[in-house]
Design goal:
The chain is an alpha/beta fold. The protein is built from twelve helices and eight strands. It is globular. Its EC number is 1.1.1.300.
């Protein structure tokens, strides 16, 4: 019997070490124990993956959580599951199609009319490396959903967020933003040969630039906004890449994926952290890689690019001048 003890002990050490290494590589759990009773939270793309798990985490902490999704059947099912698992009955599903400016305006109008407050907005929904599709309004799908849709939604909800201050906006970006470049001559890939990876990277760079510029405009308002890379997660987001379904990926790269790829539960921890942590109450305009604040790509910190992208985004989505001017301009430092 004793001859098996050493091998078993060694195996246990290896397994335990691998689990600890995975937790360290993939990030940890939200260190904040803060609760949010009475606070209203909106999470886009919350019917599955990171969005659903973020909604679950914030419902567990007592929030009045609104799941904003395109597929209402899945959204209602997710809301029911969250209510059942958290025993929080203040979890509701609302229709929002970020590929439709009309849908975004209708959603924002309904929120403004029916909700007394909006304390936390988590712009989570995304499209990743899809074919060359366009939105209802003719925008390249990834730029349209990942950036323009959330740009319009956030601006339309700003009055409610300001009235509810202190409030927070969390924008999900990606590490892929470092490979991105904002091509102002062809933002919607109308003349260039379409590259789904480059389009995704551009859209996620736009999210960080939007975060920086919005933070500058919101100084003194009591509303903070930060961007984050949640990590690579096992979700439906990567369905167009094909990487998880290949034999090579599942066999040769399986151990590496197990180490580096997060579960939706773990990938939702950074969003939860930015939404509730008391120590982040005054932090704004920053980029987080998991739970840690880090510097984004150099282009993501270019204030002139951020200002130009804001102006072009407002033009593309038809944001009224009254909405733009209500977000107070702050002069650029000399």
């Amino acid at each position: 019997m004793n001859r098996y003890l050493l091998p078993l002990s060694a195996l246990g050490t290896v397994v335990g070490g691998a689990v600890l290494l995975k937790d360290n590589v993939a990030g940890g759990v939200c260190p904040s124990k803060a609760t949010i009773p009475g606070k209203t939270v909106i999470v886009t793309g919350a019917n599955t993956g990171i969005g659903k798990q973020t909604a679950f985490e914030l419902a567990k902490r007592g929030g009045n959580v609104i799941l904003a999704c395109r597929d209402m059947e899945k959204c209602e099912a997710a809301a029911r599951a969250i209510r059942r698992e958290t025993l929080n009955h203040h979890v509701n599903a609302r229709h929002l199609d970020l590929a439709s400016l009309k849908s975004i305006r209708e959603f924002a109008a309904k929120i403004s009319e029916e909700e007394e407050r909006v304390d936390i907005l988590v712009n989570n929904a995304a499209v990743m490396r899809c074919p060359h599709w366009t939105t209802e309004d003719g925008f390249e799908m990834q730029f349209g959903v990942n950036h323009l849709g959330h740009f319009l939604l956030t601006n339309l909800l700003l009055d409610k967020l300001k009235a509810s201050a202190p409030s927070r906006i969390i924008n999900l970006s990606s590490l892929a933003h470092i490979a991105g470049h904002i091509d102002f001559d062809d933002l919607n890939w109308q003349t260039r040969k379409y590259d789904p990876k480059a389009a995704y990277s551009q859209s996620k760079l736009a999210v960080v630039l939007f975060t920086k510029e919005l933070s500058r405009r919101l100084q003194g308002s009591g509303v903070t906004v930060n961007a984050l890379h949640p990590g690579v997660a096992r979700t439906e987001l990567g369905r167009h890449t094909g990487i998880h379904g290949s034999t090579f990926s599942s066999t040769t790269l399986g151990p590496i994926f197990w180490l580096l790829v997060k579960s939706p539960e773990l990938a939702a921890q950074p969003s939860t952290y930015l939404a509730v942590a008391e120590e982040l109450a005054d932090v704004s305009g920053k980029y987080f890689d998991g739970l840690k604040q880090k510097a984004p790509a150099p282009e993501a910190e270019d204030e002139e690019v951020a200002r130009r992208l804001w102006a072009e985004s407002a033009r593309l989505v038809g944001l009224e001048a009254s909405h733009v001017s209500s977000v107070r301009e702050q002069p650029l430092p000399r």
